[in-house]
Amino acid sequence: MVSVGGCTHRPLCPAPDAEDRSAAVSVSRDCLAGWALLCNGVIHFDDGGEVLPNGKIIAPLAQAAA
Fold first, then answer.
1. Which helix (H) or strand (E) covers residue 36, if one does?
2. CA 45 vs CA 6, 8, 55: distances in Å
3. CA-CA distance, 28 to 44, in Å (whole number)?
């Protein structure tokens, strides 16, 4: 279990509600499923979507048509 707010990295990982929250250190990853659990408790998906520790869902960024 990850302790939100208990970051021991230097510099400290960004808070889950910070704009740069996805810059936090990855503590667990599933490459096949495409997600990473970050030190700040955020679940970050490879498509850019996120689930914050409070349950708020951040939609992935729209991809430009190729």
1. strand 35-38
2. 22, 23, 14
3. 11
